[in-house]
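thought: fold this chain, then report.
action: predict
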Amino acid sequence: MQYEDNNLVVCTDDGKPLDPSNLLRQFYRLIEEANVPRISFHDLRHTHATILMQQGENPKVVSERLGHSRVDITLDLYSHVSDDLQEQAAEKFENALLKQSQNPLVN
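observation:
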């Protein structure tokens, strides 16, 4: 069997498109075997983006990975993550200020 690269995210062993019903059947079977909460296949996309944003990845990079035409779309969809990042940034800034005030000779 010769692999045919069709630039697909999910495909058969030979690189051809996977039938959607087969994909979902396998996906839900794996969820059941892993004993994790059931989510939709599309939710994997949101999970991927949310984790990247939480890890501090540049929103432009996340936007490009998702295929959004503008980074604004990504930021609008994942604003809840942005709020968390804003809080983390404020804490980092506060810690830096406290560190600076404890050792004023350090720039």
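thought: worth noting. The chain has a mean pLDDT of 89.
final: tokens above.
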